[in-house]
User: Fold this.
Amino acid sequence: MFCGSEEDSKALSIAQSRLCWVAAVVAAAVALLAAAPARAAWFPGAVVDGPSQDIVEVDGLDLSLDGSGGVVYIRKDGGVNHVFVSQFYLGQFGPPQRVDPGLTGPSSSARIAASEDGRLAVVFVNGGSLFGVVSSDKTQPFTMPAQIEGGTPASPITNASIDMSVHGAAYVAYTTPGGGGGDVHVARMGDFDQSFKTITGTLDLDSGHQAGTGNGRPSVGVAADGTAIVAWGEAGGVLMRRVGRTAISSNLIGASDSPLDGHAPGPADSPVVALQDDSSYGEVVLRQNFDNGDGQSVSRLIGRNLVAGDLGPAEAIDGLDFPAPEGATDPVLGMDMRGRGLASGSRALSLTPTNALLRDGSFAGAQLMGSLVNGGTDPNTVTAGGQNLTGVVAWMQAPTPAPDGVVVAGRFEINNSYEDEFQLSPGEFGPVPASGGLFAASSRVGDSIVAFAQGPPNARRVVASLYDRFPGRANPRTPRVVHTQQPLLRWLPATDLFGLPTYRVVVDGKQIGETQNTSLRVPNTLSEGKHTWRVDTIDMNGQKRAGRNRGLRVKTTPSAA
Assistant:
C-alpha cells in the first residue's frame, strides 16, 4: 500500500505514514489496539524516506533517554552514495538531510549517537577517511563534515563504533591499517563540543598484532561522567581498556580468559560493550569457542559483568548447554543506565534469534524468540533496553513458505516477560533486503523504534516501526474548592516522549474541551456546590489513558453549600 504519488512519497512524514497504515491495518493490529486493558502497541510501517531507487541501506539508529534521536542511512545523490539523517523529535521523523555536503566521493559506514534534547553525532567514511558531524540540539543544523582520522581508499578507516553520554560527551572507536593489519584508536567530543579530537596512542596490546579487524571490530560504551570503555578483538582474543577525557588507560582487561561451565575457552571475537551511569559498572558480550565435551569446539555467546577493572565469570546468553548441538553467533547488547537490559544473538545453524535478560549484573536464561522456522535467512538480531525493565528484540526471518520474502519481526519485553511476536514490516512494501540494515533503540520509558530498509531496489523505503507505550496520567492541580463558577482547571503534564499528548477535560461526566496545554477554563458557568472532573490523556496514535475523577466544590458566596 502507498498513499499518494511516488514523487510525493519521497518526503512522506511519519504522521502521514501512520494514516496510510491505519487505512489498511491488518486484523492482528486492530485486535491489539482494541485489547483492554492494554499497555502499549506496535505501530509498524512508518515511512521515513522513499520509495526511491536511490535508497541503499540503513546504517544506524539511536534514541536518547528523552525519546529524541535519529536514523542515518545511505542514499544516492547524483548517483553517488551519501549520508542522510532524519531527526526524530516528539514522535515524528523530520525531513531527510544530507550531512556530508562538500564531499564529492561516495560515503559509507555511517553511525549515529543521540543525547538529550536532540543532540546527535554522526560519523562516516569518505575517501577512506573518518569524518564527523554534529547537531547540538533539535534547533541546530548539522556542522560541516570534519575529518577525525585520515585514510585512503586503498587503506581506509574501518569499523567505527560510536556512543554518547546522557550529557552529550561522545566517543568513536575505529580501526586504522596497522603494521599487523589493524590498530584500534579512539577520539572524543566533549559535552558541548561540535567536533571530535583524537586521543594519542593505540589501544592494542601489541601494535604488531592484527587488532580491530573483521569480527574483532571495536565497540565503545560511554558513562554519564564522560569516560568510556572500548572492547576489541586482537590475536584471537577480546581485550578492553578504559578511556578518559585525554588519555587511554594503561590497564588492559582480558575478556576472553574465563571458562564456561568448566569448559576451556578458545578464540573469541564480536565484542559489544556498555557502561552504566556509574562508569565503574558495565557489561561485555562476545562470541567465543569452547571445548564442547565431544572432542570438538563450539561457538557460544557469553556475557561478563564489569566492576571497576575486574570481570566476573563467563555466563551463557545463548540458551545452549554442553555438548551443544549447534553454535551461536552475532551477540548484541541493549543496556540501560542502571545495568538492566537484554543480550541477544542467533543460533548458527537453525538461524533462530535468542534473547537473555540482564538483571543485577547477571544474565537470565536465554529464550528462543522466533515462532516461525527461518528459511535460511540470517536473523541479524538487534535489541535495545529502556530504563524501566523494558526492552525490544527484533530480527529478520524468511518463513517457509514465505509470501512476503524476508520480513522483520519483533517482541517487546516488560517486567521480565515477553509480549507476543509482531510483524514489523508491512507486506505491501515488499521484501526486506537481508543486507539493508536492522537497528533498534529505546527511550527511558520503553518507547522503542525498529528501523530497516524495505522494498525492491527500484522502490526502497527507510521504514520505522514504533512501539508506543500508553501515555502517562495527567494529575489535576486545581484546588478542590474554587471561588468562581468558571474556574481555570490545571494539571501536571503527562509523560509521553513520542509526541505532545492531547488532554480531554471532562466535568460532571461531560466533555468540555480538548487542548495540548496544561490548563483549560470551564466554558460554561458551574452551579454552586459539588462537581467532579478529570483529564484523559490521548497520544498521537490515539491511545487513551483515562484520568482519575477529582472532586471540585464551587463556592462563591459564604452561604453556598
About this structure: Residues 1-38 have pLDDT under 50 and may be disordered. The radius of gyration is 25 Å. Residues 14-23 form the longest helix (10 residues).
